[in-house]
């Protein structure tokens, strides 16, 4: 008699993307993401609108994810969901749905840390990193260097003490009058610009920590001063400004990553998180890896942004170790990795 396959339903609702995925024995069968366009007109995510949109979309998104996977809900063996960090209202929608679904089927509930899931996105498809490996996680809310000893044994070696790299991209984009989300637009324009045309300060925090608030302030004052001399300065130099800012952010990120890899003697290195979709960062990491003899790991674009597949793969490894949550678990904006 054939052994029954392990099916896990995963829910991700930490910000403004409603996502559901089905993982079978560690393989992604479906990964559905419903984005929210309503925030574009406001230049950023409006928490109340995000949570309401999640409430509207979560049932149909889960339904389609199950159908695309060819798995009936009665054959789900566990439900994984994003417990933290994120927008509380958005997290609540996903948590409440996951709890109800798990309770109705009488199957285990698995709480997942969003940033740990970004790291484990590397284990969705081959090639998968060898342990130990370093992962630079960069998103709109986080910038971290993580030492990964095993699937669930991770240590944050350093992180931003103020703003995240993704926030720096978005805030600079706003200063330049670019539409939301600004980060991808900066990346697009940077491809046509000169990355060394303008110089911006490189923050140098202790150990493996980062800081990007000073860079944002420097860019703001730079633009104000240049526009006093030439009102059309931004329009005439947009590509070069984007390229120079992006070059500065990437230089800061890779400087600390190289420091960690050298001091810890680790040559398996990856990136994760929304900003890991940035083409400049992906190229720079690949080139750095070739120079230093690293084995570099970069997830597919669909697994860089917020998605339920990464929640599901994390839930899979937690299931194998019996790390389940009870129905009293609550979503939080911040939480420790477990």
Question: How does this model look, in words?
Answer:
The chain has 338 residues and is of the alpha/beta class. It has 2 domains: 7-119 and 304-320, 2-Layer Sandwich (Nucleotidyltransferase, domain 5), CATH 3.30.420.40; 127-299, Nucleotidyltransferase, domain 5 (2-Layer Sandwich), CATH 3.30.420.40. The protein has helices at residues 47-69, 88-105, 114-120, 165-175, 182-190, 213-229, 233-264, 279-292, 308-320, and strands at 7-12, 18-24, 27-34, 78-84, 109-113, 133-138, 143-148, 154-159, 268-272, 295-297. The two termini are 36 Å apart. The model has no long low-confidence stretch (mean pLDDT 94).
Strand segment count: 10
User: Briefly, what CATH class of the largest domain?
Assistant: Alpha Beta
Order of helices and strands: EEEHEHEHEEEHHHHEHEH
- Determine the structural class based on helices, strands and strand pairing: alpha/beta
Write the layout of secondary structure elements.
Blueprint: E1 7-12, E2 18-24, E3 27-34, H1 47-69, E4 78-84, H2 88-105, E5 109-113, H3 114-120, E6 133-138, E7 143-148, E8 154-159, H4 165-175, H5 182-190, H6 213-229, H7 233-264, E9 268-272, H8 279-292, E10 295-297, H9 308-320
Parallel strand pairs: 1-4, 4-5, 6-9, 9-10
Antiparallel strand pairs: 1-2, 2-3, 6-7, 7-8
Summarize the structure.
The chain is α/β, with parallel strands linked by helices and 338 residues long.
Key words describing this protein structure:
338 residues, globular, alpha/beta, Nucleotidyltransferase, domain 5, 2 domains, five-stranded mixed sheet
């Amino acid at each position: 008699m054939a052994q029954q396959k392990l099916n896990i339903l995963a829910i991700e609702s930490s910000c403004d993307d409603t996502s559901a995925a089905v993982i079978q024995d560690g393989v992604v069968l479906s990964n559905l993401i419903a984005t929210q366009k309503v925030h574009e007109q406001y230049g950023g995510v409006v928490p109340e609108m995000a949570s309401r949109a999640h409430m509207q979309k979560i049932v149909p998104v889960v339904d389609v994810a199950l159908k695309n996977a060819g798995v009936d809900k009665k054959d789900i063996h566990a439900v994984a969901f994003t417990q933290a960090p994120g927008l509380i209202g958005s997290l609540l929608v996903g948590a409440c749905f996951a709890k109800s679904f798990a309770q109705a089927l009488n199957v285990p509930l698995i709480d997942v840390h969003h940033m740990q899931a970004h790291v484990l996105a590397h284990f969705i498809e081959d090639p998968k990193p060898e342990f130990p490996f370093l992962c630079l996680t960069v998103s709109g809310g986080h910038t971290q260097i993580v030492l990964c000893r095993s699937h669930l044994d991770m240590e944050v070696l350093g992180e931003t003490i103020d703003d995240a790299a993704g926030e720096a991209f978005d805030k600079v984009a706003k200063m330049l009058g670019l539409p939301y989300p600004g980060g991808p637009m900066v990346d697009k324009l940077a491809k046509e610009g000169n990355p060394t045309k303008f110089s911006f300060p490189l923050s140098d925090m202790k150990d493996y920590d980062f800081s990007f608030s000073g860079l944002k302030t420097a860019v703001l004052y730079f633009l104000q001063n240049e526009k006093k001399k030439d009102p059309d300065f931004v329009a005439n130099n947009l590509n070069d400004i984007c390229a120079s800012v992006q070059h500065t952010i990437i230089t800061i990120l890779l400087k600390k990553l190289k420091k960690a890899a050298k001091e810890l003697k680790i040559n398996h290195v990856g990136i994760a998180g929304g900003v890991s979709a940035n083409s400049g960062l992906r190229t720079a990491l690949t080139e750095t890896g070739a120079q230093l003899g690293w084995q570099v790991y970069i997830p597919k674009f669909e697994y860089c942004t917020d998605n339920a597949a990464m929640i599901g793969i994390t839930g899979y490894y937690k299931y194998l170790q019996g790390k389940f949550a009870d129905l009293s678990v609550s979503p939080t904006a911040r939480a420790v990795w477990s």
